[in-house]
Amino acid sequence: MIQPKLHSRFEGGVALDVLSWRLATPMLVAATAVSGGGLGTRHWILNIQVPHEYARRDVEHHVRQIARHFDLREDGVAMLTAVPVRGVLHEHEKGLDAYVTVGVRKPTWAASDAEVVNDGTEPGTINVVAFLPVRVTPGALLNALTTATEAKAQALWDVGIAGTGTASDAVCIACPLGGDEEMFLGPRSVWGSRLARAVHRAVVRGARSEWA
Fold it and tell me: What's the mean pLDDT in 70-78?
């Protein structure tokens, strides 16, 4: 199991937390993250808590500063959220591990008429980090992003939240670089179904907790 470490940092006089996964060996990663997103080999993953009013445009520079602070020098992935990341939720499903931070105070429908929303209200973000124990093809790993997103949307539906997610959600899926390749990660494949169930349970738990 690849477990995150919780760190604290001070920024602008405010204590903010960071979850870090320092990978013992590099992994193939697909991510929709603002920094280090895409498909490729990565050495670390960060889920960084930022202030609610966060509006920096130099996100890559900011992430590099934080990564260097934790002595992370190689390529990695960083996600941002205003949610306290110390409340991360972990779900294990037959060899697969999913870690989710959930903020749904401002849900949105993907097919909304609104193109840009920035009205100063409290933001919300759902960040998903999942680790597969098996190697998968690049196409299957990208498919896993869709599977996790579908599971997230199903979870919100199941708890009665009117939205498919928030405007700033991110997903990161990692798998080993070696071994025989799995070709399918859709929701009815072996590992895709496990991923979906783990993400669904975590998002349900987080959404119910925040809206209780």
Answer: 96
Q: HEC profile for 148-174?
A: HHHHHHHHHHHCCCCCCECCCCEEEEE
**What's the rounded Cα separation, in Å, for the pair 191 and 187?**
8
Q: Are strands 14-31 and 170-175 parallel, antiparallel or unpaired?
A: antiparallel
CATH of the domain at 121: 3.60.70
Q: Which of 22, 151, 18, 177 is nearest to 86 (CA)?
A: 18
- Pick the closest to residue 163 from 176, 182, 149 (CA basis): 149
Model pTM above 0.90: yes
**Of all residues in the chain, what percent carry a pLDDT higher than 90?**
84
| The pLDDT value given to residue 121 | 45
Question: Could you tell me the residue range of the domain that residue 96 belongs to?
Answer: 5-211
**Tokens of residue 151, six digits:** 């599971």
Which residues contact residue 145 at a Cβ distance below 8 angstroms, ignoring those fewer than 6 apart? 30, 31, 32, 171, 173
- In eight-state DSSP terms, residue 94 is T
Residue 163 contacts residue 156 (beta carbons within 8 Å):
yes
The number of folded domains in the chain is 1
Q: 140: which 2 tokens?
A: 């299957």
Name the packing angle between helices 138-158 and 190-211 (round to 10°).
40
